[in-house]
Write a structure and sequence with these properties.
single chain, mainly alpha, two-stranded antiparallel ribbon, 76% helix
Length: 537
Amino acid sequence: MSDNFLTSLMDFIKDNNISLISPELLLTFVIMLCVCYLAFSKSLKERQDIWNIATAGTFGALVILTVFWNIDYVHSPNLLSVSVLNGMFKADLFSLLVRTLLVAGTFLVLLFTRTFIDKRAEVPGEFYVLLLSALLGGMMLSGATDLIMVFVALETLSISSYLLAGYMRGNILSYEAGLKYLLYGSMATAVLLFGLSLLYGLTGYTAFPQMLANMPSYASVSPIIWSLMAIMIVGGIAFKLSAAPFHMWAPDTYEGAPTPVVAFLSVISKIAAFALAIRLFTLVFGTNGAFNEGWMGLLSTLAVVSMVLGNVVALAQRNIKRLMAYSTVAHVGYLLLGFVVMNQQNAGGLGSMVYYLITYLFMNLGAFAVVTHMENLTGRTDIAAYAGLVRKKPFVAAVLSIMFLSLAGIPITAGFFGKFFLFQAVANAGSQYLWLVIVALLTSTISLYYYLNVIRLMVIAEPSDAVEALPVNEPSARLFTPVGLTLAICAVGTVLVGVFSNGLLELSNSAVHDLQVQSMLSHTQQQAPQAEISKAR
């Protein structure tokens, strides 16, 4: 009896390619292990040990993903047929790249989180359970090719994020951050779900390829329905991306939420949301003319408003976390330019966007690692507290300077190459898009002021009271400590991603090329029945 069961189980795993989601299965096991450990632990020390389990599990998932990069299926021409869970999850090169970024980013967040959370949280272990749950939702979202999987993964990521934002019990700002994020997020999810339901109603399918193959023509559907569906879907995703004017939750949430949570929301959550948008827009809307005319103009507007508002409002910020919130809004605006030119031949907008996400992972997480470390040492998040930091913490000040120079797009850094490739893709799409490049360049110039202002304070200004109070030999940011290791990885990563920009850009283009091929195959399936009908007539 047991032999038959094992044989059936192995056949099921093989037939459904379950091994390709082994990182997700490992994280699920680690989450269950952490919950059980919390339930039976008696002391605070034991609950703090959850960090060890969560970090080891995340590192294990990263190792498995690294192994995936070295097996033949990644480079196989049959990659497009590799699907999991009855076609609801696609284990293609794009999802592998995004999952690697998500796990690597969460691992870095865990490294600089423990000291901060153990010092402030009443039950530290629960934080890591929620963090891994959010990561699991983001990973499943990166390869979701079915509306049902999209919704389940998106809610797993969102609900965990709401709880993380309001995690600090007794902190009124954390309560406010969690409540605002919950209210706005629930409303945005409802809008997105309504738009997706209209899409399901028009096609009769929830799987992306079947939806495209059965997408009705624009002429056969009311323009009001098309417009309503496009606005709801784009608006719901824009909220997840914190694109202006759907960014209203971001500044208050970033200011009040625990800083490691802000790092996760600003980087990991954004990468997962962009992965959903890239796959959805490419597979469902990439070849549909009705969306080419309307939603591209909508995305252009969102990109411009985000770039202008994010950079201009950031100038007036006096809190480092609010400054990073508006910086995130501005960078989302840059990234949205890739969608605007996604259907233009030889532009490379989506590939440049994916490369920009790689650079964004290192430079933004590095900045938040410094902000978390400084808040842990001084208890302050105002920009004035960073004055004279180079005199007490030269390594920390140097890392934050590198991160801000990269975010500003200064040459040699990874951020420069990210912006260069993205703006070049928009320029290559045609002269009608040059105005977007001009707006992007002007707003990037504005960002130099508030990034360089922080660097000026750290290097030139007299030390603040918070910096003066820091001990000279405080060891928490040395190289072989978790925080120091995070800062070193982010600094080196920011440089190396720029050095190997051509190879990474080629990899990014290959990842999105697979999606475009899938879209073309589904579109061909859509056109074939129509051709047969015309021939019969």
